[in-house]
């Protein structure tokens, strides 16, 4: 017999052989045992997780006359014919190449006829999301009212592209990514059966490279066996997968952590010359750094082969690189990984990455030396400070005698800057204040009502950046201010001009007029809001006393007002403006006590206004 790939030789023939999908297999077996077989199934999940294999096993089980405990016997003529693919009553269709209306209409017409040999006619439609809209519509009626002898099994890797009307007419089963330990155990079993020796680290590397797909893992294992059939070694697995060894990554991280840019660049060029993929280089670095963090918390959490290949060297590297450095390296690697997708010169980005990581160690070390410098200031600096203070005292004394304010220049010269948090993106206060100048509560309510619709209009990547921790906090007829709970996410979105333009374009469609969007971190928003309210006070309001020509208030109204607010004070302009801009619930801070002012009750306010908007 001609050679067959490992994933074909070891394709599961029973539900018990389908590893990593216990929930799916147990549910299907129970349905077969109780004879509760549905007319349509939808199998969805990543590639290589067993969707098509499960469909064929199910097709055998429903037609096997000797099944036991929901499992096909695999010995009868029907089971063997389905396994060999020669039973005409089990039809497997690739929707990627048969996605037209005519093909589906042909299926619909033939489904009316009874099966020739088996009890059920089973249609397995793989990659069903590739069907055209017309093809889905043609399939819809058959799924809604199928013949009693027909079962449809739909398989897809992109269930979001399948119409909801199709999904609602099927029983959906989600196949999950297979755990690394499960893949390793399966390869261990196969190699033992084939009587081939192996390195445990090699199997772990192959399982990690497969990313949860059993078929991918067996395909890589097949390549490694072809590279060296007598023994599965870690070196062969590294060569086939294009991964970097733990020793190489350790040397690279030591070099960049010590600021040795030349050594780091040499390692990069050596690996690229050996045919390593730049994307794989960064992916391996991210996995290695993740294991550094996990190993520091608990050595058992770091399960990749990097942590187990040389535990002593791994533990030594942990002592040299602290968690702060690791976090910063991961941020840099993530940014470069995104940029690699849009460039035709990935090797250049790896060189830039190396320089950036090496200089990162120098920039991190600088703040540590700052306190020492501040603790021992130079004599010249002390002299200048003393002179400046003397000038301030003299100016204040002169002002006290003459009743005039001191000049602002000397005071400003020695004013020390408050410590600021270093951020990559600055908030556009001028534009935000312009929005606040025209903002109303109604505009904000309108924007909040369509915010969910706006997120649904974005693609998956854009929606992920705006889905968690964001909300409109102020809105005018032509603009909206959006706050971010997480500063890191704010910086990423604020720098993404494409995302901003897409949000504004979709917002224009929903609002019906041009809209601009401005972003602000949640931690800065209360101070921005307070500064605006204090800088833009409202004019004098009418007093609580009625004018001579005003109609007298009825007794009932007076009684109701008195009972509702016995200590009501004249309305405060700042409170009114805060409520008009940010909502009806306003918190008023009076120094030692705090009060609340709603739309029905204004409290006296002296020091500041806080809004819960």
From TrEMBL:
CDD domains per UniProt: AAA, HLD_clamp_pol_III_gamma_tau
Family annotation (Gene3D superfamilies): 1.10.8.60, 1.20.272.10, P-loop containing nucleotide triphosphate hydrolases
AAA+ ATPase domain sequence ranges: 37-179
Domain of life assignment: Bacteria
GO molecular function, one term: DNA-directed DNA polymerase activity
Region feature Disordered, mapped onto this chain: 400-422, 539-558, 590-613
Presence of the UniProt keyword Protein transport in the record: no
Keywords: ATP-binding, DNA replication, DNA-directed DNA polymerase, Metal-binding, Nucleotide-binding, Nucleotidyltransferase, Transferase, Zinc
Low complexity composition bias: residue spans: 400-413
Record-listed E.C. numbers: 2.7.7.7
Reactions catalysed, as given in the entry: DNA(n) + a 2'-deoxyribonucleoside 5'-triphosphate = DNA(n+1) + diphosphate
Organism encoding this protein: Schleiferilactobacillus harbinensis DSM 16991
InterPro entries registered for this protein in UniProt: AAA+_ATPase, ClpA/B, DNA_pol3_clamp-load_cplx_C, DNA_pol_III_gamma-3, DNA_pol_III_sug/sutau_N, DNA_Rep/Repair_Clamp_Loader, HLD_clamp_pol_III_gamma_tau, P-loop_NTPase
Gene Ontology CC annotations of this record: DNA polymerase III complex
Protein name listed in UniProt: DNA-directed DNA polymerase
Pfam family, one: DNAX_ATPase_lid
Family, per entry: Belongs to the DnaX/STICHEL family.
GO process terms (BP): DNA-templated DNA replication
């Amino acid at each position: 017999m001609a050679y067959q790939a490992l994933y074909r030789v070891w394709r599961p023939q029973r539900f018990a052989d389908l590893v990593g999908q216990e929930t799916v297999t147990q549910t299907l077996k129970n349905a077969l045992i109780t004879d509760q077989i549905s007319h349509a199934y939808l199998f969805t999940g990543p590639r290589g997780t067993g969707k098509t294999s499960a469909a064929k096993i199910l097709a055998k089980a429903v037609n096997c006359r000797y099944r036991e405990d929901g499992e096909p016997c695999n010995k009868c003529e029907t089971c063997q014919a389905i396994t060999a693919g020669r039973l005409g009553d089990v039809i497997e269709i690739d929707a990627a190449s048969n996605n037209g209306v005519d093909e589906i209409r042909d299926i619909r017409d033939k489904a009316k006829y009874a099966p020739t040999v088996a009890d059920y006619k089973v249609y397995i439609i793989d990659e069903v999301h590739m069907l055209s809209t017309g093809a889905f519509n043609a399939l819809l009626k058959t799924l809604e009212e199928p013949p009693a002898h027909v079962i449809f099994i739909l398989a897809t890797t992109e269930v979001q592209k399948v119409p909801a009307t199709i999904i609602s007419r099927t029983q959906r089963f989600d196949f999950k990514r297979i755990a690394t330990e499960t893949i390793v155990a399966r390869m261990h079993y196969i190699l033992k059966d084939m009587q081939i020796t192996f390195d445990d680290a090699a199997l772990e590397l192959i399982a990690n490279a497969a990313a949860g797909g059993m078929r991918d893992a067996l395909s890589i294992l097949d390549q490694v066996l072809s590279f060296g059939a007598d023994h599965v070694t870690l070196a062969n697995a590294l060569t086939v997968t294009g991964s970097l060894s733990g020793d190489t990554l350790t040397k690279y991280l030591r070099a960049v952590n010590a600021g040795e840019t030349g050594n780091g660049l040499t390692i990069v060029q050596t690996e690229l010359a050996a045919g390593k993929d730049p994307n794989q280089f960064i992916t391996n670095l991210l996995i290695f750094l993740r294991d550094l963090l996990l190993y520091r918390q608990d050595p058992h959490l770091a399960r990749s082969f990097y942590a187990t290949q040389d535990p002593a060297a791994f533990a030594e590297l942990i002592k040299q690189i602290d968690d702060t450095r690791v976090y910063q390296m991961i941020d840099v690697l993530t940014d470069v990984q995104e940029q690699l997708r849009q460039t035709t010169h990935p090797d250049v980005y790896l060189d830039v990455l190396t320089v950036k990581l090496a200089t990162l160690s120098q920039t991190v070390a600088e703040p540590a030396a700052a306190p020492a410098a501040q603790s021992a200031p130079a004599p010249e600096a002390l002299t200048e400070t003393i002179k400046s203070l003397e000038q301030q005292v003299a100016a204040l004394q002169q002002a006290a005698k003459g009743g005039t304010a001191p000049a602002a220049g000397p005071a400003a010269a020695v004013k020390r800057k408050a410590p600021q948090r270093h951020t990559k993106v600055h908030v556009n206060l001028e534009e935000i204040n312009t929005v606040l100048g025209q903002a109303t509560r109604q505009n904000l309510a309108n924007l909040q009502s369509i915010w969910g619709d706006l997120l649904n209009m974005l693609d998956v990547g854009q929606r992920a950046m705006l889905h968690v921790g964001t909300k409109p906090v102020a809105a005018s007829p032509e603009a909206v201010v959006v706050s971010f709970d997480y500063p890191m996410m704010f910086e990423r979105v604020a720098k993404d001009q494409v995302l901003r333009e897409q949000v504004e374009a979709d917002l224009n469609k929903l609002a019906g007029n041009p809209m601009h969007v401005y972003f602000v971190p949640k931690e800065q928003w209360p101070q921005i809001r307070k500064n605006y309210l204090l800088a833009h006070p409202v004019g004098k309001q009418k007093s609580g006393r009625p004018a001579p020509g005003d109609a007298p208030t009825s007794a009932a109204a007076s009684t109701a007002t008195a009972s509702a607010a016995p200590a009501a004070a004249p309305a405060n302009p700042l409170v009114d403006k805060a409520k008009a801009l940010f909502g009806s619930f306003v918190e008023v801070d009076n120094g030692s006590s705090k009060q609340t002012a709603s739309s029905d009750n204004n409290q006296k306010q002296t020091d500041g206004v806080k809004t819960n908007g």
